[in-house]
Structure formats: structure tokens, C-alpha cells
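Protocol step 4 of 5: obtain the predicted structure for the target chain.
Materials: sequence only (see below). No template structures provided, no constraints applied. The aim of this step is simply to have a reference model before the mutagenesis design in step 5. Sequence pasted as it appears in the construct record:
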Amino acid sequence: MVMDAFNQAFNSLLLWYSAATAWAPASVRLALLSAAAGVGMIWVFGKVSNQARIRTVKRKVQAHLLELRIFSDEPAVAWRAQKSLLRANLGYAGLMLQPVLVLALPTVLLLVHLEGFYGRAPLAVGRPAIVTVAMRGPAITAPVLMAPEGIEIETPPVRVLERNEVSWRIRPVAPVSGYLHFTIDGRTVSKRIEAGGSPLFVPGRRVDSAFAALWRPGEPRIGAGNIEWIDIRYPQASVSLFGFSTDWLVWFFILSMASALLLKGRFKVSV
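Step 4 output (C-alpha cells):
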């Protein structure tokens, strides 16, 4: 499947990077990756944008701002300058639209893949968690869950009939990196589980549809069958950098934008 192959290739590249920099804490790995992403974004921005027109429009904006300051006591001139400034700003926004659209898709794809590396923490040993299977219709036979050694299944399957969902409460009793196995209507499907330790990657929801796989790329699609998705409720992770701990997305945007702005002069890019 094309989507599975694409996700696997993207994840393999990020896993290779994480393994190669495993000597460093997650914050350092994220900082290096964010800075590289910023460099890539400013380079692409320079290639796909009309740099000559951007520089011209920026000069017009500066000229109209200066005109407003100089002729602030002359209403007619100031009004014309304001209209010209508005037109110049609209032109500038239009010039920004093309590079932003070009950068949007690869940036979003990178972010959804990075979520499994920096956005989720493994299950804590000794603490319960919920695993849920969503189906397209009622199961003919009772679903069966088999867990690897180190994972205890504490409850029988609990059905939510109106949503066609089945949930179990599980509890890790030791660090585990393995798979849960679900047997539903004679078909067995697996779901990776991470508990304890410091894994480089914690996969999120495993899904069936190709569209959903764009936003849930951590594992191969389930494939044909009655199962729509399988989900484990992992705790949210945070990244500590410069003494501050927050969501990884905050650090990614700060560091990538900072590197892009710092290097725009070297790449001779106007933004």
C-alpha cells in the first residue's frame, strides 16, 4: 500500500536519526531537528517565492510608513498614504501565500510523524491504562485480548454498543516493548505497546482508512475487516529545554523559526 510505504519510509528515517543521536537527551535531538527544519524551510521559501517582488513591496511599505510620519498633519496626503499602505500590505500577503502553501503539507506531515517521538510517553509501570477497539459494526463473537508478558489485563471486554467500541483496562507490571493481539470474529490484529523505559518512539492509534493514516502514521494500516481503529491512552510527554518544560510543538516552532530568521541573510532570502 502506498500510504503504508510512505509512512514506513518517513518513520524509518526519523528512527535512524533518533538512533544515531541516542547519546543525547530528547531535548537536544528535538533542538537539532528543529534547527534543520528551519534551515530547510527558509531554503524552500527562497526557491518558491518571488524574491524580487517581495523586496519591492517591502520597500513600498517602508516608504508609505515614512510618508505617514512625515505628512501626519496633512489629512489628504496621510489618507492617500494609508490607502497605498493597505494595497502594499495586501500585495505582500499575496506574495506570501504561494510559499506558505508549498511548505504547509511537508511541515504538517513532519509534525504528525514527530508526535510519536516527542509527544507521547510510554505507559507508567504500575499504573492502569485503557485500550480500545472501534469497529464498523457489532462483533459476532466476543473480542479476545492477549497481552505480552509484563502486561496484566484487569477487566473483561466492556462494550459501548452505540459506538461499537470495546475497551479493556490493562496494567503494566514491568517495562514492555511488544504487541497486544486482538481476536475479533476470527481475525487477529496486533497493536504495539510501550511501557516503562525510554523508547525512542511511542506509536499512537492504529487505523484502517488511508485518510486517517495520514494523521496516524505510527503503524501500518489494519487492512480490510470490521476493525476501524485500535487505541492505547498514553500519557502526554513534555520536553525540557533551557530549564523550561513544555509541549514539544512549542520548542519546535520557536527553534525552527529562530534558525530560519537567523540564516535568512546567509541564504539571501527576504520574508
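Step 4 remarks: Residues 75-119 form the longest helix (45 residues). The chain has a mean pLDDT of 90.
Proceed to step 5.
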